[in-house]
Structures are given as C-alpha cells and as structure tokens.
Design a protein that fits this description.
It is found in: Membrane. This protein has about 425 residues and is mainly alpha-helical. Helix content is about 80%, strand content about 0%. Helix 3 runs antiparallel to helix 4, helix 7 packs across helix 10 and helix 7 runs antiparallel to helix 11.
C-alpha cells in the first residue's frame, strides 16, 4: 500500500530498515527462547506432571464427596493430595520460587480448614479454583516458556501497538498535509493535542487495571469479560480494516474525518482533533494489552520487547511519512498485523470460554486423551483447552476470519490483483 498525496518527498530505504529491525527482534526472541528456564536448574527428582495429575484427581474426588455430604472423606482426600503428592512437588518448587511455594501451602491449608469447619460448598469451590490456578502456575514453572510462546507474545505485542500506531500516523499525516496548505499555524496545537493523548492513554491502562482489581466480582468473571470485550473489538477492527486496505478507501475515510474540523480554523478544535485521533487508538491499545497480559503471565518481558520494537518501527515510519513524505507499502504491514490480531482474538475467545466453564456459566465437555497436550504457556496464550466448547467456539471464529480474508483478497472483484499491485508499492 502506498500513501500518496500526503506530502512531496523521496522514497527511501525504510522497508529495509524495518526488515533489519524485525530480524533483530527474531534473533532476540530466539536467544531468549532457548535459554534454560529456572526450573531446569532445579533438576527435580520427582515426576511433577504425574504428581500434579494425582493432585487434581484427588481434588475432584474430594469436591464430589463434600457436595454429597461426606465431609470426612473429603477431608481425607484433601490431606492425601497435599501430604502424598504436593509435598513431593514442593522440594524442587522451593528452589524455583520459595514465596510461591509458601502461598500454595496456605491455599491447601485453607482448603482443609474450610472442610473441617463445614463451610458452604460454593465457598470451598472458590478455594479449589484458586488451587487449580496455582497448580497451573506450578506446571508452567517446570515446563518453561520454550521457544514458541515468547515468540508469539512478542509478535502479538508488536502487532497491537503497530496496527493502532499506523492508523494514528495516517490520520495525523492527512491532517498535517491539509493544514500545511490551508493554515500552517495550526500545526502546533495539533501536536499538543496528540502529545497529551499519549499520557492519557497510559493513564487509561492504569485506571483499567485498578478497576479490574477492585471490581466486586470474581477474578474468573473479570478475565472472561475483558477477554470477550477485547475479542469483540478486535473482530470489529479487523473487518473494518479489511474494508480499507485499498488506498482510495483509506484516503476517502481520512478526508471525511479531517476536513470539517480543520476548516473551522479554531486552535482548540484542532488540538481536540489531535487528542481524539490519538486517544481513541490509545484506549483500544490499553484494553488489548490488558487482555494480552491476562494470557501471557510470566511472559511480561516479552510483551515489553514487542512494545519497544513497535515504538522503534513506528518512529521510523512516522518520520518517513510525515517528515520525508515517503511512500511506503503499508498495505502489506497492515495485512500482517491484522492477521496476528485475528489469531490473538481466537486465543482470547478460547480462554474466555474456559474461564466461564470454570465458574459453571458454560457447560464443560472434556475431550479424551487424543486431544494434544501443549506447553502450558502456549496453551494459555492460544486458548488451547481440552474441552469441546472452547474448540468449537475458536473454530467458528477462525472460519469466519478465513472467509473474510479470502473474500477481501480473492473473491472480491479486483481483490487479488489489487493486493499484489499495492503490496509491492505500485499504483
């Protein structure tokens, strides 16, 4: 995709710079991915996977007995889960994370105390759910992130900020191009408005994070709602952008959004336009990163790596388009970013369905052992849970995306030809 008519200039070697930047990112990810996790240093002498599976089975049996009114059997099974199995896991776990080990001990103790005190079954269920989450974290600690999960997290993090940032650059470039010919003095208020939107977007992320922590509902419900809202927004954005990968449609959209506000000539109106143009994308970005962090626990550094690389890439592209007037093949970049965001939304949907199953909102149909077992980090990131409901939901969304992609680039009149011409920079 080429952005023509924004400003005169020459066509530089920016795409090569971006390719080099991407190569550096891949190298960093590969080097980080092959580094041995802390769990390997512990060299556990126990079969952690087998012990965790035994604990989960005993937890389920204990819950069944407690709901049936047999508190004595439930307590015996709860003690057996801890004494006969988790204490074996504790030996190597203390080497990796002693604080987390102590926290898990408290969770097991609370579970037993609730059974002894005859607490309501719903209250005990909440504690068991927390224990399940803890066991998932234990499993992840011993497996390590491997290579694929950090790579996917970095790419997803990069794509979120890159896609939103490209739209901001295009809008600001269109406004600046018009201001330059009509009223150059309005450039400064435009930049002031756009600049204020950046800290406002960061503040939005902190506010959203605070609201999620203090909300008077369960953690599973919060995570499911955030994920579902992010999926809906990603779904809308992906289809919106697919309809505007054509240069003419992009420019028509930008002109309709810009001309009226700039024509007023009011400094405050132009500053507000700059603020809204950036903050709209910033608020979406805050929500997307909140959802990404929910499924990328213990991979936060890779999220930051993706953000850093996206900032570098956007700085180069913004400078090339706004300052030099370079014509870049943005269609190809945006197409890749949209594809990654689509896949991320599929993973978020799987995790949202899984969270709702954990609290009993959606029925759970477990798949047999033929369902492949994935690395815990990868399973959480892609939402790959062994239930029929998660697989069906993800498959339906993936098929919808595939149909839309094929229509946009192959079935729509001129789609494939337009893609090839504009993807290589031709007009």
């Amino acid at each position: 995709m080429t952005i023509a008519g924004l400003a005169p200039g020459r066509q530089g070697g920016v795409p090569r710079c971006l390719l080099a930047l991407f190569a550096v990112a891949v190298l960093l990810v590969l080097l980080g991915g092959v580094a041995p996790p802390a769990a390997r240093a512990a060299e556990p002498q126990v079969d952690v996977q087998r012990e965790l599976a035994a604990i989960r089975a005993l937890m389920q049996q204990s819950q069944d007995a407690y709901r049936a009114g047999d508190a004595e059997t439930a307590l015996r099974l709860a003690r057996q889960a801890y004494l006969d199995h988790f204490e074996l896991v504790e030996i190597p776990l203390r080497v990796i994370d002693p604080n987390f080990t102590l926290e898990m001990e408290y969770r097991f103790a609370e579970w037993r105390n609730q059974i002894e005190a005859g607490a309501p079954a719903a209250e005990v269920d909440v504690t068991v759910q927390e224990l399940e989450r803890g066991l998932d974290e234990v499993e992840a600690l011993f497996e390590g992130p491997g290579l694929v999960a950090p790579t996917l997290v970095t790419v997803a993090s990069f794509s979120i900020l890159f896609r939103e940032g490209i739209e901001v650059i295009l809008v600001l470039a269109a406004i600046l191009g018009y201001i330059q010919t009509q009223n150059p003095r309005l450039r400064r208020p435009l930049w002031w408005g756009a600049g204020l939107a950046v800290p406002a977007s960061v503040l939005t992320w902190f506010v959203l994070n605070w609201v999620l922590r203090v909300a008077p509902i369960g953690r599973e419900v919060i995570e499911a709602l955030v994920s579902l809202f992010a999926v809906a927004l990603m779904f809308y954005i992906s289809f919106w952008l697919l309809r505007r990968l054509d240069v003419r449609r992009w420019m028509e959209f930008l002109r309709a959004k810009v001309w009226d506000a700039v024509a007023v000539g009011n400094t405050g109106a132009v500053a507000a336009l700059g603020f809204v143009s950036v903050y709209r994308e910033g608020a979406e970005t805050a929500l997307f990163y909140q959802a990404l962090l929910l499924i990328a626990q213990r991979l936060e550094l890779w999220v930051l790596l993706g953000i850093g690389l996206a900032i570098l890439a956007l700085s180069v592209i913004g400078w090339a388009i706004i300052a030099l007037g370079a014509r870049l093949p943005l269609r190809a970049f945006l197409g890749i970013a949209v594809a990654v965001i689509m896949l991320l939304s599929v993973g978020l949907l799987g995790n949202a369905v899984w969270e709702l199953q954990q609290i009993g909102v959606i029925p759970m149909t477990l798949l047999d052992d033929s369902f492949p077992r994935f690395n815990r980090f990868l399973a959480d990131l892609l939402g790959l849970h062994a239930t029929l409901e998660t697989v069906v939901a993800q498959s339906v969304l993936l098929l919808v995306y595939l149909a839309a992609w094929l229509y946009a680039f192959w079935w729509q009149p001129g789609g494939a030809g337009t893609w090839r011409r504009q993807g290589t920079g031709a007009r």
